[in-house]
């Protein structure tokens, strides 16, 4: 977000401290990516680096431009939450060839050996946790709706599949509708309302992320169905956790975004200092399920320490 | 004594000196006619007096009190009302909307008082003997009718000074008669009227005082009774005007334009026939005139020939070859080109220079394979500028910096650059001053000598009587009379066009 | 009827003129109706098709829900209509939606004055948010009138500026549970988007009220005539003493206010405000206005048509979701419908002209 | 400049005319320069500011990189320029960018004909993709010329249609490693976006070539004159035998082709094609053209200005990133710069006019 990069910009012109670490995330107006960026930036400063935070709005071309910029600024390392498993291979390779190690967080790319590390929260595992909680909440039966993320986003697919793997084992559970709400709250709200009109006999809603889950909650509340319907999301955003405490949502799979970002920066530091990160490339961090029972234990995309 | 006076008014537009220190006064109860060639500065002076343009230097006084107009509205509120040379109506609004635009009659509730407006509108239209439903869209009206709306709007504001800049350029004679009657009523009520028109005799007829501008300077003032047309023309042009209508001997060649039983539906109104079975022939070296009243269909005839509007039946042949579905450009390529009636709307590209406008139609002639040959183009353009005597500082000047007459010459020059075999001109003298008129007609004659076939329309009896070798009178889409030059009188003409009572004008014997 | 202007024989002439006059007037009226008819047809087709394909489409509750969705774009479209009537365009409305939500969120979260945190009541919050929207509109207006910046560019610039502002104020975060707190006396915000009167959502009433107000404004007040005149022929309007600049400035402010209201409704529905709300909404609003028979060149269009246009866009979107059509197809179909609806317009107008002419001719020959 | 028809004393009159003539011509020349100067000034200011704030901005490599980024928007803007010169607008270019990438991806992945999978060579792929872009442009053209749909609406519709098509063809998936396979003989696609000649990326050459071609087309070929005439006054152009409809249709096709090329460059740079590529690119292209001094009303604008405009947009974006300015500020500043650049234009023109008038006045009083 704003503050970090502002101070960064003033910093970046003042000469070379520990060098520059470029942090690139999809969009700062989503709490998850923001937490990621903030955590990474904080860690990097702590380790004595300048930082620059930018976002690519899931536009592969813009991402490629941002990486060019990092290269021409002779960044020491790049922390990247990328804009597409395939579309990002080129740019990451480009950075590698320029001698800049790239540390991927949150999303993988479909190629190994170009990025120094790919630290991703285990979306499949998280999805399964969420789905299991969902099934429990629905007492293994009934009609449910799935709100999926942007079709052209890898994680949307991974999570949807993760949900299916679990839920498909319960024949009594019936998916009555599945629509994409592009990760967006208002779109989720509108589409949920429309679906309710089509079919009021719904016991559950499982969404590809918390923003959409909260949109669904608002719609269900308006229709007076919320007490009869369990809603499960993904990400573990503060708003979702609040909703869980309030009993409006059943559960969400929390991705330890902050953790991944911090680890990425630490490994970047190691790589800059002594050439190797000391970890293998593919690292996955397990998600944690957040329910009313344990909600208090969690802060901003991380367990409270 | 005088209501409105402007003293030592100057106006500079970018590089142009429209006015160079002009004193002007309008007296109550009198009609002051303002004469001057195109670009003399008439409209500019009037716009300044009506608060539309601000003078570069100079002062305006109302009833002797100096004023500085902040806007057209300000001037209107002090009783100075202007009818603009170029129509300023909203085509998307009804007549009544236009009549009361900006000065709505409102009810207590603050809403527009439609009922009151409609009755007032109907009344004024009746006085103008133009009984149209006030709810009619102005866009559906003919040029002439629109001009009447413009006049009606001015009349609705109780003006102390009424400025009329070319109010009759699209009016038929009877409409002009009506207008004159109203002007006399106004002056009787002590209104000061300023009247500008290129129909000199008409203007002289209504005038009490005469003022002549030349190149932005005031060159003469007089009482209307003391002067005649000749004098006015001398003052305008600065020298004796050789006759408007030079005699010429015609050498007729073979038939270039052949029209047989042409039927053209009215584009604006598809089951009214604009042209209803017209047959006519024009030979090389011949100038044929089309006379008719507004709406007679002359424009439609010419536009149909040019390929602008589709024909329903009949045949058009150019030098024997029948033109069927040829596009406008194919017709131009074959040597048939139209000089349209409304030069602003159809003749000129305002964003381009004089030179670019001139070469637009004949452009392909300068194309060497794919590219334009600039040198060829420039020579051709500057040759044309001298040929048609366009008054411009350079071919690169923006077309907007030219006055009406000169713009018209550019449009004609553009047509000549396509070296046509048949030249169609729709109202070539509309809104053009005597000097330019003479030039234009001289041009037509010259082209005819060079073996072109010329077909032109006019609404002015004088031109109809003297210019063409043959005159065709068109009425409601039919040819109702054919005369050869000299063989007809003004009276014949009026009778034939089913138009109006011949007007009794002093300036007629010229 | 080609002799409307020549004198003798007067009798024939006057009859003639009267006839053609009547004919034209009549033709006018028909045309007026047709302008919406076109949009109505598009809407009718949509409704029929969806009703045939889904039994849950044409139910009372679903129509109410869909209308509620339409309300948001409808309110934006009404503001846009005025701008388009004047011959302009407003690309910034989407961003204003986001900005006004953020402002509301900020205020409901409490404002710190001299160290103490004050919680303004909801009505203050709403007024401030709308004021902010109006302000952005005013900037658009100033850029267009004082600095002669083309409306497209001026509002494109403000599209970015307003969005940037929304993100900066909120620091990119979403304002959660705007329900308010009884103790702080700032509850009731969710009524705007969540409340119902006689089972009908408040936002629908808001749309209806605005529609009526705008119709009166356009039809009855001098402002309306000035607006059409400015859009039809600005120079002529100016020469007639119409305060053109003021008219222009006003429409952008009104449009901004409408956008702000839409933003509030959304925030209230979700009881949370996201800075990125409203992205690309401007396109839907413009589409609604144009489908409603307005000309982007200005001077032509009306409230009824615009409403119908908004319903076309809204019902289409919801109908496709109801049918479970894939997002990809939804996008493609939306584009096709926009173009078709407008083509339909063109076609009908040409057809209509001919029809009216015939009618006119008939009358004349009859008299 | 014959003065044959006016007043004595000729001497004074001629001198006078000459003076004002000189003034006018001179004013014209200055204005012409100014039209770009305006954009140039904006660009100069940007470069100076960024160079002062960052030591890595004005380095050879960075300038080359930024220019490479400019190339994409620049190519779109050149196509857009023609459309705008003609008085239209093309909102569909962004979607065409996505579509052409998808088409390329599809072809490089191999096309199945009669059961056998064929791998067309790269040059075929490129031609087909560009053909598809041209086709979308042709549809725009037909909608505008044959069906009189307003360009804004026609291209807005195609914005959705083309995007939908891209998503449907790719089923929302990204086409991976378009590097090609030596065995299949379809390698070399990545050259377009990745290749360098004398250390300068191919895409920059493409932009340069297009710029030259367009300049010649506009300045030297009749088509150019026709284009300006159509944009300036369509009716007059038509009556002068300008093939108005053809000119219009052409510009949309050219714009579509440019967009397709841009899409190919992007896909090639990333050696992968995403269906959502190019979203909102149209806005940047339009901004570039207008900052470059073109009038959205048509008839005014040129290649040089448009290029400068593209550089302003591109250098601004990269410069802000280079400074590490937050995304939120980037958005806001971008909007401000667009508006300011255009205001600068207006201001300078008015100033310029006054200057000329003054000069002329001076001359008169002198003579
Ligand atoms: N807006 C303008 N910009 C530049 N020059 C102008 C402008 N308006 C008028 N002029 C110039 O001022 C001079 C006077 O123009 P004006 O219209 O007053 O002439 P006029 O006597 O009305 O001619 P006409 O009889 O054709 O109407 C002409 O040279 C014209 O080119
Ligand atoms: N009585 C009428 N009713 C409706 N439309 C008319 C009438 N008379 C003419 N028109 C239309 O008005 C337009 C202008 O016609 P116009 O007056 O130009 O014919 P014209 O013979 O060329 O006369 P002029 O060239 O002097 O204007 C044409 O489209 C014509 O069809
Ligand atoms: Mg004049
Ligand atoms: Mg005519």
Automatic annotation (TrEMBL), chain B:
Keyword Cytoplasm listed: no
Keyword Phosphoprotein part of the UniProt annotation: no
Molecular function terms from GO: ATP binding
Record keywords: ATP-binding, Cell membrane, Membrane, Nucleotide-binding, Repeat, Sugar transport, Translocase, Transport
Residues in ABC transporter domain copies: 4-240, 257-501
Spans traversing the lipid bilayer: none
Pfam families: ABC_tran
Taxonomy, superkingdom: Bacteria
PANTHER family according to UniProt: CARBOHYDRATE TRANSPORT ATP-BINDING PROTEIN MG119-RELATED, D-ALLOSE IMPORT ATP-BINDING PROTEIN ALSA-RELATED
Protein name as it appears in the record: Sugar ABC transporter ATP-binding protein
Species the sequence originates in: Cryptosporangium japonicum
From TrEMBL, chains C, D:
Pfam families (UniProt xref): BPD_transp_2
Subcellular location: Cell membrane
Lineage of the species this protein comes from: Bacteria, Bacillati, Actinomycetota, Actinomycetes, Cryptosporangiales
InterPro entries per the UniProt record, alphabetical: ABC_transp_permease (IPR001851)
Protein name: ABC transporter permease
Signal peptide: none
Alphabetically ordered keywords of this record: Cell inner membrane, Cell membrane, Membrane, Transmembrane, Transmembrane helix, Transport
Organism listed in the record: Cryptosporangium japonicum
Bilayer topology annotation: Multi-pass membrane protein
Spans traversing the lipid bilayer: 37-58, 70-89, 96-116, 122-143, 150-169, 197-218, 251-268, 280-296, 303-321
